[in-house]
Amino acid sequence: MTKLKAYSVSVISITCFLLIWHFGTKWSGVPSYLLPGPIEVAKSAWVLYSTGLIFPHIGITLTQMLLGYFLGCIIAFLLGALVAEFVLAERILFPYVVGFQSMPKVALAPLLLVWFGFGMTFKVVLVALICFFPMFINTMTGLRSANPDLVDLYRAFSAPRWLIFWDVKLPSAANSIFAGLQISIVLGLIGTVVGEFLAARQGLGHLIQSSSMNFDVGAMFTSVFTLSLIGVLANFAVRSVYRKVVYWEKTTLTAPVSGH
Amino acid sequence: MANVSMLDIDGISVVYQTTQGPLLALRALDLKVEKGQFVSVIGSSGCGKSTLLRVVSGLMSVSEGSARLSGSAITGPRSDVGIVFQQPTLLPWKTVIDNVLVPIRALGLPIANYRARAEELLELVGLGKFANHLPRELSGGMQQRAGIARGLIHDPAVLLMDEPFAALDALTRERMTMELQSIWLNTRKTVVFITHSIPEAVFLADKIVVLSGRPGTKILEVPVDIARPRTLETLASPEFGKIANQLREMLGASSAMH
Ligand SMILES: Nc1ncnc2c1ncn2[C@@H]1O[C@H](COP(=O)(O)OP(=O)(O)OP(=O)(O)O)[C@@H](O)[C@H]1O
Ligand SMILES: [Mg+2]
User: Fold this and answer.
1) ipTM field
2) Residue A253 lies inside a defined structural domain of this protein
3) Span of A13-22, A129-138, A246-255, B43-52 with lowest mean pLDDT
4) Domains in chain A, number
5) Is A251 a domain residue?
6) Terminus of chain A with fewer CB atoms < 10 Å: N or C?
7) Domain region containing A24
8) CA dist B149 to A250, B74, B256, Å?
9) DSSP annotation string for B174-194
10) What is the pLDDT of residues B12-53, one digit of tens each?
11) Which atom of ligand 1 is nearest to the CA of B18?
């Protein structure tokens, strides 16, 4: 009952939003090349999807985002583990971490463009760079947050280091690591679009830009909505993997508790 | 075979390197534990009780004196001690039985050979039906019992217990004390039991060692010659009261000096 109620509120809210949007644009006299109404956007979305014109763009954006994401996250995980485990690695890497951490990574985009050219490599590297830090920091702090008593327990039985890492530290870090994965996926999507704004012949970012040149605002909106859909689905994917992997946490997304 | 020395600690001092310089945690401490004996160690907070256990389990080295276990000097981690921590300290991602088997895994012994023993031990601590549960599905007292089973899995020569019941409520604590006695009567392990609680110390021990405030050193050693199994009536007996009072005075005096 309550669940149904919660959903119906959302549905009502969205309906109201669409109505306001529709009549707002109709009556206010804002020209549709500035702000199209929902029906025009839906039409343009229908065209883009039914002809299949948008799919190569979605495909390329997804590919770039995922390649960059996995590349960045894997390197970040490995370096994070190295720094957490070995003091020497920390001493060597720490100055760079501090230096890079507060730098807005997109500022490096033009430089990367010079280095890697206009192709896919440029965007993948940009996304990887953007995904790197949240994952790196979260892996490192997660691995270090392991309960020292658990580590002592293993040490008291002369357990090899890799076993302590595998049995104790890695699972202790799981929550943190997944937080990193979740932040990174959102940032990765932003990075992909920025990269496509700068240099691309395909991709949703490129589609937004090229349709803005043609004053095709409907296509722009369609691309933006598609991007947010990708964001939502990616987030959902990370969360379902989390629930599978981190089975020992009580993670069933708590439905709002209500007395009646 | 009586009076075989299992644990032989002779004049040890232990120093921690802290940000404020070296800190003496234990000073010239002697402790002898015979095979099969249950020894309670009691002392105020911060007097070095956990430090003593870290020394015996080989996680910390002494700066003076010597510590020997079953006749050989303790130089590092070794397989003949079992540890039970103040908190249950179970791995939340492993089932209860896998948690009990952790020492076997850490020692690199074949797990399959110990599964049956793990089941027996879980039976002994009353968790037979919970072998395949995750720790979070157990109450605090049950988790602590799983911790005790884990301490015994590799049949250690000595079981070290660091305030194992401190995190439990008073009722559970009392019940666990009774259960520990029966587990001990069944296994006759050598036990070093650390506690803050005077009744707990007296109830369980063959011998009680009182430590002074930091740096910890032995200020009193009392034998407890009360027949076993001890029961709730024991708590009201005059011998029990006499020893408890003696400890209370001693601990009061040592903390009054600060
Ligand atoms: N890792 C450490 N580094 C520096 N000093 C420490 C460390 N662990 C303990 N100490 C110091 O050594 C002293 C003894 O600590 P220990 O943990 O052995 O006390 P304890 O008797 O077990 O206390 P409690 O009853 O509160 O558990 C304390 O005063 C503490 O300040
Ligand atoms: Mg302690």
Assistant:
1) 0.80
2) no
3) A246-255
4) 2
5) no
6) C
7) 1-30
8) 26, 24, 39
9) HHHHHHHHHHHHHH--EEEEE
10) 888 898 888 888 888 988 899 998 899 999 988 888 888 999
11) 4
DSSP labels, chain B:
-TT-EEEEEEEEEEEEEETTEEEEEEEEEEEEEETT-EEEEE--TTSSHHHHHHHHTTSS--SEEEEEETTEE--S--TTEEEE-SS----TTS-HHHHHTHHHHHHT--GGGGHHHHHHHHHHTT-GGGTTS-GGGS-HHHHHHHHHHHHHTT--SEEEEESTTTTS-HHHHHHHHHHHHHHHHHH--EEEEEES-HHHHHHH-SEEEEEPSSSB-EEEEEE----SS--GGGGGSHHHHHHHHHHHHHHHHHHHT-
Judgement on whether residues A7 and A112 belong to the same structural domain of the protein:
no
Considering the domain architecture, whether residues A23 and A78 belong to the same structural domain is answered as: no
Ligand 1: residue whose CA is nearest its atom 28: B46
The amino acid that residue B207 corresponds to is K
Contact assessment for residue A192 and residue A64, using Cβ atoms and an 8 Å cutoff:
yes
- Cβ neighbours for A30, distance < 8 A, ≥ 6 positions apart: A24
**DSSP three-state, residue B162:** strand
| Dihedral in degrees, nearest 10, Cα atoms B138, B143, B148, B154 | 70
B59: Cβ below 6 Å to ligand 1?
no
Tell me, yes or no, whether A216 and A125 share the same domain.
yes
Mutation for testing the B interface, residue in A147, A152, A153 having most B CBs under 10 Å = A153
**Chain A CA closest to residue B80:** A157
pTM value > 0.95: no
Q: Does residue A252 lie in a domain region?
A: no
Interchain CB distance below 8 Å, B59 and A156? yes
How far apart, in whole angstroms, are the C-alpha atoms of residue B239 and residue B219? 21
Nearest CA among B10, B31, B24, B62 for reference residue B220? B31
- In chain B, the domains with their CATH numbers are 1-80+194-258 (3.40.50.300)
Tokens 């310089």 sit on residue: B21
B87 touches ligand 1 (CB under 6 Å): no
Q: Strands B5-18 and B64-69, how do they pair?
A: antiparallel
User: Token pair for residue A34?
Assistant: 């500035």
How many residues belong to chain B?
258
